[in-house]
Amino acid sequence: NAGVTQTPKFRVLKTGQSMTLLCAQDMNHEYMYWYRQDPGMGLRLIHYSVGEGTTAKGEVPDGYNVSRLKKQNFLLGLESAAPSQTSVYFCASSYGTPDYNEQFFGPGTRLTVL
Amino acid sequence: AQSVAQPEDQVNVAEGNPLTVKCTYSVSGNPYLFWYVQYPNRGLQFLLKYITGDNLVKGSYGFEAEFNKSQTSFHLKKPSALVSDSALYFCAVRGSYSGGGADGLTFGKGTHLIIQP
Fold first, then answer.
1. Tens of pLDDT along A2-20?
2. Considering only CB atoms, which chain A residues are within 8 Å of B9?
3. Which of A8, A88, B42, B65 has the most Cβ atoms closer than 10 angstroms to its Cβ?
4. What residues form DSSP beta bridges with A113?
């Protein structure tokens, strides 16, 4: 089992460019999440999905879009990158709701927007 | 609204000594509490959780946490620290009145634990 994988690991963008981060999990989990981690702020939830074909907004969704076309994949898109989106992005998945079930995290994507 | 406080940015402990990483919370309803650990350049890893039952929860790598309802705390502990325990530790919480969605798991800002040889 690879668990949760993320691509790419690193990326540098110029302001206004777009990109897509890919998250894949092989644990047959229903729930998937995208977080961003900024120094001194912990993790903040961007978007999440409770199953294939469904997505919902988290705490900080502005400037991001997501899609869950296949159960094992959860994509995070930045349509027009801004320096404020410089961060480390983590994908996670869980078997069920996050109150009863631990989340499994990917290794992260470090994104710099110039 | 729910919140988590980790009052110490950094905790320094000598190897072999007991360690405590503090966490206090505020939720509506009963709390569901978690501890995660993050090693450098890695994603978070689950350590332990409290849902209900015994106030002392045992987890991975010899860690345990004590749930104290009256003090709204969920401190992480280990009887004897190892250098390899040095990492960033996150407390997370969700309240039972937060609704049925998958959002609402609030993470603390994290505490750097440094174990000195």
1. 899 999 999 999 999 999 9
2. 40
3. B65
4. A13
